[in-house]
Amino acid sequence: MSTFQLEFVSPEKLLLSRPVEMAVIPAAEGEMGVLPGHSPMIVALRGGVITVTEAGQVSERLFVAGGFAEVTPSRVTILADEATPVAQLSKADAERRIAECEKAYDEAAAEATPEKRDAAMARLLSARAMLAAAEAA
Amino acid sequence: MASLKALRLRINSVKSTRKITQAMKMVAAAKLRRAQQRAEAARPYAERMERMLASLGAAVAGQPDAPKLLVGTGGDAVHLLVVVSGDRGLAGAFNTNVGRFARNRVRELESHGKTVKILGVGRKATTYLKREFGSRFVGEISFANKKVVGFDDAAEIAATITRMLDANEFDVCSLIYNRFKNVITQTPSEQQLIPGAVPEQEAAEAIGPQALYEYEPTEDEILAALLPQNLAVQVYRAILETTAGFYGSQMTAMDNATRNAGEMINKLTINYNRTRQANITKELIEIISGAEAV
């Protein structure tokens, strides 16, 4: 099966750079499966799990808290704010993060502008996705 | 001439100084390697980000409602300088250089009638600049009690800058830091953050005709999220380069110190031996002339 180059980078390091068959990306408006030859896109990511398929099997599952992805027919670049392999996620961490985000959201909802509220909401949703991923693992 | 005992004490004291500087040099070399690795690890992200920004920025820059982070406020009356330096000393002229560079810049801007605000990152340049420009400081950040400076810390600084921009507290923002050329050379330099230098057209053209991207969600929304992130990346890079440069500079400084201590020990040892010989000769002369008198 044909492949494309997947590059997965976080601000602190290059996590992955190799040819893969398929990647499922949690785009802002829904999960998006990318196969070789995809039309060029730039998408924002929400919190979720990126699933990488190689040789017909799921080879990597990584949780991202948010970020961007650039898709071209021959290459996909994922700029993740923060990335953790799903197996290393901890439920306790996720729950703590949800609690923090809920507090921040309540504060933002009380006085901040709609943009700030949306940003806080996005963070909260990302934390919830982290918990869901941790529970599934 | 110093007594033998005093010389011996000096030699011993210089020897222990040499041991310390040698150990510091070794530690700095190890830390330098780690800092360099981290700086290299962060490079791919910055590069990809630049590429993405180039294709987006070109599309949005001309619009009248382009985001402030990209085009600034339009004025240039108030400058915010973010000065990044090391938190520790004993690294030669590393911190002084960036401090002096910043000082000259502040003077230059003020002689043109601009208002200057300073955000100090790292303890050394902050204390250096505070003596003269204490009233211009709007904040200071130090990582002295942190082992590793992560991206989160840079993101926090970027958030502070964004907040100030939203509150219209400055028009132009620049970053002053020691650019890491190689282990021996670090040059203080200035990089403008806001209004952002739209990545050059070449970068956008390099992507070629296939640069017709679809955006999800809209271009504006992605750009609004990408720009603060980019700011954080720039700050992070400056911090990493400063860290690497600091250890490089410290290593060089400690190497020099070790060599100087070695020279000093040689000189003192020669001096010590001469003195000792002179004493022996004197004693002999005294004995011989005493014997002759009898």
- Please name the two chains that share the biggest interface, counting residues whose Cβ lies under 8 Å from a Cβ on the partner chain: A-B, 23 and 30 residues
The CATH topology label of the largest domain in chain A is ATP Synthase, domain 1
Question: How many separate helices of chain B?
Answer: 7
Give the fraction of residues assigned to helices of chain B. Answer: 55-70%
- Low-confidence runs of chain B (pLDDT<50, min 5 residues)? none
- Please list the strands of the largest sheet of chain B in the order they lie side by side: 3-2-1-4-5
**What is the CATH topology classification name of the largest domain in chain B?**
Pyruvate Kinase, Chain: A, domain 1
Number of helices of chain A: 2
How helical, in percent, are the residues of chain A? Answer: 25-40%
Mean pLDDT of chain A: 84
Q: Whole-Å distance between the termini of chain A? A: 28 Å
Structural class, from helix and strand content of chain B? alpha/beta
CATH class of the largest domain in chain B: Alpha Beta
Q: Based on CA inertia axes, which overall geometry of chain A fits?
A: globular
Give short descriptive properties of this protein.
heterodimer, A: 137 residues, alpha+beta, ATP Synthase, domain 1, 2 domains, 5-stranded mixed β-sheet, 5-stranded antiparallel β-sheet, 2 helices, 10 strands, 32% helix, B: 294 residues, alpha/beta, Pyruvate Kinase, Chain: A, domain 1, 7 helices, 6 strands, 14% strand, elongated
Tell me what the structure shows.
The complex is a heterodimer of chains A (137) and B (294). Chain A has helices at residues 91-111, 114-136; strands at 4-9, 14-20, 22-27, 30-34, 41-45, 48-54, 57-64, 67-72, 75-80, 83-85. With 137 residues, chain A is of the alpha+beta class. Chain A folds into 2 domains: 4-86, Sandwich (ATP Synthase, domain 1), CATH 2.60.15.10; 89-136. In chain A, the strands form 2 sheets. A 5-stranded mixed sheet of chain A has the order 2-1-9-8-5, with no helix packed on it. In chain A, helix 1 packs antiparallel against helix 2. The longest helix of chain A has 23 residues, at 114-136. The mean pLDDT of chain A is 84. Chain B has 2 domains: 4-21 and 254-287; 33-251, 3-Layer(aba) Sandwich (Pyruvate Kinase, Chain: A, domain 1), CATH 3.40.1380. In chain B, 64% of the residues lie in helices and 14% in strands. Chain B contains 7 helices and 6 strands, in the order ααβαβαβαββαβα. The longest helix of chain B has 75 residues, at 219-293. Chain B is elongated and about 110 Å long. The chains are: A alpha+beta (137), B alpha/beta (294). Chains A and B meet through strand 5 and strand 8 of A and helix 1, strand 6 and helix 7 of B. Strand 5 (41-45) of chain A pairs parallel with strand 6 of chain B.
